[in-house]
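Deliverable D4.2, example record:
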Amino acid sequence: MKNIAIFASGSGSNAERIFEYFVDSEQINVKLVLCNNPEAGVIQRAERLQIPLIIFDRLAFKSGEVVKILQHNQIDWVILAGFLWLVPKNVVEAFPNRIINIHPALLPKFGGKGMYGHFVHEAVVENNETESGITIHFVNEHYDEGGVIFQASFPVLYTDIPADVARKGQVLEHKHFPEVIERTILASV
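Output generated by the structure prediction step:
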């Protein structure tokens, strides 16, 4: 059994979808949710789903305390599902090629510091893109620069506003993210 920890900063819809996908799995277990935002909706989702939850701050993240928590809980893989902080070197080194992120655009377009959520969707519309999508990738020490695992796209219509782009992307996220996590983890066994 491989244990995963999900890091989230926001509402947690992807975290919930991942949990639901693996709830009866005999190979992958969602063991923890970690959150850096004490006001995030993912907190209520984790409580409702009865997933152990840890809220942490920047100091705990950078000092190595979070790595100790992950190791103590025998976490094998880290999944970033709407997590907005840059992952520090100590976490990347503790989980080499075992941290997966989802980004709401087709990287390398619209990636990097400050490019998350509505900022990405606004940029897609402002740049008159005819296509956008999602990228699932490994995490390194730089925003959105780790190796791409999977991409899926959708058309952006000239009438689309950022909320339309967000909605289309979330459909792809919920459909593909859990499956790609499963394939990636099982391929590494």
